[in-house]
Specification:
about 140 residues, alpha+beta, 6-stranded mixed sheet, 6 strands
């Protein structure tokens, strides 16, 4: 069992760019969690994403489609059901729930929604860098 779990973690790390030792990802990732590919909310969200793939690509955003009991995708790469379940556990997304989650390069969750989000909302969150506070000089 541990061998399978290790393979799944390694596979997900390769596909998402997530490195647990560093706590960072190579690129922001928009996770779309859905019970099944037939879920109506999922289909609407994917219509929004599919119509704006170029924008997501230009901003370096990976899109991951995560299902409960079937194969998912991270970009064009296939993700086995075990990998999907591992991501659901990692992000505490219960079965039966639709959820959209944007995770940035530093593994910070920048957006969580229980319904569809616009591509503009995603890009706004990707562009929004944390502000650093500097002390005024005397």
């Amino acid at each position: 069992m541990e061998r399978v779990a290790t393979f799944n973690r390694r596979y997900v790390m390769e596909k998402t760019g997530y490195h647990p030792n560093e706590g960072q990802t190579d690129r922001p990732c928009l996770y779309v969690f859905s019970p099944t590919p037939r879920n109506r909310t999922y289909q609407i969200q994917m219509d929004v994403i599919d119509g704006n793939r170029r924008v997501f690509r230009d901003y370096g955003v990976n899109v991951a489609e995560i299902f409960e009991d079937c194969q998912g995708h991270i970009g064009s790469e296939k993700l086995p059901p075990e990998g999907c379940n591992g991501l659901r556990r990692r992000f505490h997304v219960p079965q039966g729930r639709f959820c959209v989650m944007l995770v940035d390069r530093d593994s910070r969750i920048k957006l969580i929604a229980d319904s569809c989000v616009s591509y503009e909302e995603v890009i706004m969150r990707v562009e929004n860098k944390p502000q650093t506070h500097q002390k005024p000089t005397d």
